[in-house]
Design a protein that fits this description.
globular; 234 residues; mainly alpha; DUF5995
Length: 234
Amino acid sequence: MSTITDVIDRMREIDRGLDPHDGVACFNRVYLKVTERIAHELTTGLFADPPFVERLDVDFAGFYLAAVDAAVAGRPARPWRPLFAARADRSVWSLQFALAGMNAHINHDLALAVITTCTDTGRDPDDDPIHHDFLRINEILEDVESEVRRSLEPALLKLATKDAETLKHIVGTFCVARARDLSWCSLQTLWPQRGHPFLYDNSVALLAQTVSVMGRLLVTPVTDVPDLWDLDGD
């Protein structure tokens, strides 16, 4: 894939091929919304360097799409395993699946995607306006995350108090803005290590392990809610 349009087409293809209640489908729908928003904003002047943002978006999406392909063979990357392992569990809410995907993709993949894009384009992460545009994407993600969380509120009213509190505690452990801040910190740690394979590979492996633990927390079963799954609250 070479353009953000290619990425959107592939995500739509994935969506058409999955049961709407599949945990991966829940994440894919949210990611598709974000990617469509970014594609639109590439033409509005929101970003200072649209070509770099598009290239980063394509590289970033590649990690998720590779995880989807690897899951077919039963070998998803470690940060993605909690989502793929729990994808058919009807006691896990759609929002939990969406956040588990964001956890794997942002906390692990994002730093590696920035390294890939910067390396391939001969840039440094500290070059202007890379971090500026990185923060602009935060605004889009926060809007979509808030929309998804709001869609959960009517369903929460139908839950027993104990189950509702458990769910709110689980989903409250993840915040997109905080995750992206942490991913930038991971990038700043990994970037100087990229010329030292042993050190770099061990740092990435430790990051993957940490993200996987968080992913397992996010897909903790809450209750069986077959009628309350839709991310849009339908």
